[in-house]
Amino acid sequence: MQIGELSARTGLSRDTLRFYEKRGLLRARRSDNGYRDYPPEAVRWLGYVRMAQGLGFSLAEIEADLPRVTDAQPAATADELQAVLARKLQEIDARIAGLQGLRAELLAQLQAPQPACPLRGVRGEVLA
């Protein structure tokens, strides 16, 4: 299918499709007239990319970690996908723990009597 049809079927702009192709996330054959010709599996793959982005994966992570769905390579196995998702979950849990620690520190500062401002001296003058 040509880029216009792929764009219509996925809701992605032609520029986005070209960008994905340039990054290697999407492959197209070139017809004799130079038009891009995408395999039918591209629609499914792009849905997979959009789902992964919705789950918090960056394009770099998708490129590096998520198995590709192309006409040359079959879909990811359930075990491969589970491993990638488990690693992402661990990363999210670590970020949440870090944010909870930061929240606790901020709350302690707010609850302390007269929180000390590091920009003010003992008498309240602004330090340079």
Automatic annotation (TrEMBL):
SUPFAM superfamilies in the record: Putative DNA-binding domain (SSF46955)
Domain HTH merR-type: 1-68
Keyword Transcription regulation tagged: yes
SMART domains associated with the record: HTH_MERR
GO MF: DNA binding; DNA-binding transcription factor activity
Pfam families linked to this entry: MerR_1 (PF13411)
This protein's UniProt keywords: DNA-binding, Transcription, Transcription regulation
The organism's place on the tree of life at top rank: Bacteria
Cited InterPro entries: DNA-bd_dom_put_sf, MerR-type_HTH_dom, MerR_fam
Protein name: MerR family transcriptional regulator
Organism: Kinneretia aquatilis
